[in-house]
Amino acid sequence: MAKRRKAKQRESRAPRFWGQHAVLAALENPARTIRKLWATHDAIAGIDVPPDLQVEMAGVADLGRLVPQDAPHQGLVIEVEPLADIAIEDLLAGAGDGRPLVILDQVTDPHNAGAIMRSALAFDALGLVTQDRHAPPESGALAKAASGALEILPWCRVVNLARALDQIAEAGFWRIGLAGEADMDLADALGGKRIALILGAEGAGLRPNVASHCDALARLPISDRIESLNVSNAAAIALYAAQNSQESR
Questions:
Q1: Are both 63 and 107 inside the same structural domain?
Q2: Are strands 173-178 and 216-219 parallel, antiparallel or unpaired?
Q3: How many Å apart are CA 111 and CA 148, to the nearest integer?
Q4: Tens-digit pLDDT profile for residues 93-116
Q5: How far apart are CA 200 and CA 240, in angstroms?
Q6: What is the rounded CA–CA span in Å between residue 60 and residue 71?
Q7: Residue 4 pLDDT exceeds 80
Q8: Is residue 151 part of a domain?
Q9: Range of the domain at 95
Q10: CA nearest to 4, candidates 27, 33, 24, 36
Q11: Is residue 123 part of a domain?
Q12: Euclidean distance between CA atoms 139 and 135, whole angstroms
């Protein structure tokens, strides 16, 4: 796994995760520092809790006050430290096995980012690259949508996405930007090289400077009865196509 640099705090307070998948994945991640766990007696039964972890037993209503309204906490809430940074050089050092890379250009919605993480892990992606300032921080909503992938998938945050795309190209990746206005279908853009998929925010799409750092722009061949797909759905389809292309070589 890519090496991790010293973490830097991205929120004024430590994020809180909720729900069984997010909480159990965090507990199983040796790189994750957990400050405190709140749980109901039923939810914590059978969970292997580290002996040095502070645990507070609470009722369902008490847990509800620790998370956003109507958040499905399933009897478990934890407060954590953000994971340490991953340098892009360290992430790309593990790029020799042909796995795809996912890059997000200003996708700020935590539900979309978390769902993309889940798909990226499902299709064995090398990791995720985002900008540091224009991406969602670690949060309960992101961890819930990622369904445990936040703790496993390497996530590299960079200051300059265009510069990072140059480094990704130097590492041997063919950079495909997904754009609904592109003339080429994704199947035609997938080549023999390692694949990096770049996706932009819904509505705005890829920024011009990011698009200019792609080797190809491609679209998903969807029906003209609908204008576009949700970015997380588009990412899942593109990852599936990239995996099939890799396996057929």
A1: no
A2: parallel
A3: 13
A4: 876 778 999 999 999 999 999 999
A5: 18
A6: 12
A7: no
A8: yes
A9: 88-247
A10: 33
A11: yes
A12: 12
Q: How many structural domains comprise the chain? A: 2
Is pLDDT above 90 for 208? yes
Number of other CB atoms surrounding residue 109 within 10 Å: 17
Asked if 105 and 158 touch (Cβ cutoff 8 Å), the reply is: no
Rounded Cα distance, 29 and 207, in Å: 35
Among 80, 106, 134, residue at a domain's last position = 80
Look up residue 174 and give its two tokens.
Answer: 């063919």
Q: What's the pLDDT tens digit per position in 28-60?
A: 999 999 999 999 999 898 888 888 898 999 999
The single residue listed with the structure tokens 């853009």 is 189
Using only C-alpha atoms, the chain has a radius of gyration, in whole angstroms, of 19
Q: Measured between alpha carbons, how far apart are the two ends of the chain, in Å?
A: 26
Q: Are residues 76 and 126 in the same domain?
A: no
**Rounded average pLDDT over 224-237:** 85
SS (H, E, C) the chain: CCCECCCCCCCCCCCEEECHHHHHHHHHCCCCCEEEEEECHHHHCCCCCCCCCCEEECCHHHHHCCCCCCCCCCCEEEEECCCCCECHHHHHCCHHHCCCEEEEECCCCHHHHHHHHHHHHHCCCCEEEEECCCCCCCCHHHHHHHCCHHHCCCEEEECCHHHHHHHHHHCCEEEEEECCCCCEEHHHHCCCCEEEEEEEECCCECCHHHHCCCCEEEECCCCCCCCCCCHHHHHHHHHHHHHHHHHCC
